[in-house]
Amino acid sequence: MSESTLDPTAPAESPTKDATPLHTLLEIWENLLSNIEKSREERVGPQIAARILRAWPMLPLQRIPAYLDTYHSYLEQFRDVLRELISDNPEALKNLGSEDAELNHQLYLDLLFEWNCLALGFDLTWDVTHEDSYLQLAALADAFNFVLGDQGLVAHFNSIGFRLTEEENADLVSALKAWVEEQ
Fold first, then answer.
1. Least confident of 38-42, 150-154, 164-168
2. Which of the 8 DSSP states describes residue 183?
3. Of 69, 131, 153, 160, which cross-links 101 as Cys (Cβ 3.0–4.6 Å)?
4. Helix and strand tally (H, E) in the chain?
5. Residue 33 neighbours by CB distance under 10 Å
6. Neighbours of 100 (CB within 10 A)
7. CA–CA–CA angle 131, 134, 140 (5° rounding)
8. Cβ neighbours of 14 (radius 10 Å)
9. φ/ψ of residue 62, rounded to 5
């Protein structure tokens, strides 16, 4: 696994604030998630192993490859949701700069909902009695943080001026609660 983009212990890189954006946040995120397969094939070196063990000390060293495979699988599913949204809305990629937050606002709300549903689905199917439950929990927590955490991909919203209103936040929470009840 590389020392950069998909390191489960590192915050997601932030787009540059000073320059006029040449890409939408959707494209930047897709790019950040585009090297999962390459990252999956890389050798696990001692520095990456040590970082993972610092974060997850009960994870046996020999299970780190399985943890990384699970982590990458979760990220692939988040990426699939993003790619589907982009495929369904190719015109959104033309909305650069301040237009990104404004004209793609509903898409970002939809993506937040879909990503949260995906994470909740993982949560609902996780089984504490499974022999790899600790490994799965660690991979899920790290993938969730990479995408939806305070320093993850959604932290990039500030760089384009995207803000959730209190009403939108309340609607999102209500929709997620309804989704969970349907499961």
1. 150-154
2. -
3. 160
4. 9, 0
5. 22
6. 26
7. 120
8. 13
9. -70, -15
- What dihedral do alpha carbons 125, 13, 7, 131 form, nearest 10°? -10
| pLDDT tens sequence across 28-86 | 999 999 999 999 999 999 999 999 999 999 999 999 999 999 999 999 999 999 999 99
CA nearest neighbour of 1 among 49, 55, 34, 70: 49
Answer yes or no: is pLDDT of 175 > 80: yes
Give the CA count within 13 Å in the CB-facing half-sphere of 42.
19
Domain ranges of the chain: 25-182
Q: Which of 134, 118, 119 is nearest to 66 (CA)?
A: 134
Count of all residues that appear for the chain in the document: 183
Q: Residue 66 corresponds to which amino acid?
A: A
Contacts of range 56-63, beta carbons closer than 8 Å, 24 or more positions apart: 56/134, 56/138, 58/134, 59/134, 59/135, 59/138, 63/132, 63/135
Alpha carbon distance 101, 95 (integer Å) = 8
